[in-house]
Amino acid sequence: MKWALILGASSGFGAATAVKLAQDGYDIAGVHLDRRQTMPQAEAVQRLVREAGRSALFFNKNCSAPENRAAVVAALKAQGARIHVLLHSIAFGVVKPYLGEGAATPDDVRLTCEVMGNDVVYWTQALVSQGLLASPGRIFAMTSEGDRRVGKEYGPVSAAKSALEANLRQLSVELAPLRVTANCILAGVTDTPALRRIPGHEEMLAGSLRRNPHGRLTTPADVANLISLLCDERAAWLTGAVIPCDGGETIA
User: Fold this and answer.
1) Which domains does the chain have, with CATH numbers?
2) What is the model's pTM?
């Protein structure tokens, strides 16, 4: 029995990947943070997982809180789940300029880097310490073009994405003896709920449509299909990488 643990499972990349991996034969453990108005989308993902014939064990919790992480890991252990795939797809942080009116505070920067840059390390540590990370296995985390390009108010997130990539490189080396790979997926601009919270997202969407040689935006399904492909045993030698999934958008 194979399990995938999806952090950010109710929408966007996480939701699409949960459904795709369920179709591939994985049981799905999902962590998401939704209030009443967005709970139907989390319930829809669980329904699709079960329609694929797989188990859905979902937790409506803030995944970055240590006590919540401990509770989820304890529940997985009680379930007898071994995690073959971990996806970190959390978009929670501060979008503010570094200077001038409304500038990011030190707490803003720390929060963003903790949740979007370091949290995947803490989850990996917890799974390994409890013997829940399967061998062979896969770890994926979602990065963005902000790791190398400057956006008007994107500084804290850019810093977090750079930290995330460094963390995944380190994990890839330390996890190699366990035959667990660790890679970042760099998606093209995608119309997700997370993107719509970024100031100026309309311009980002329009600019990506102009740049992308395929004439369309990246979709969550594009990313889910790539992750599905990379879970194949023939991708076991690919680790420590930042893998674009953007139809050539970042090079156009």
Assistant:
1) 3-251 (3.40.50.720)
2) 0.94
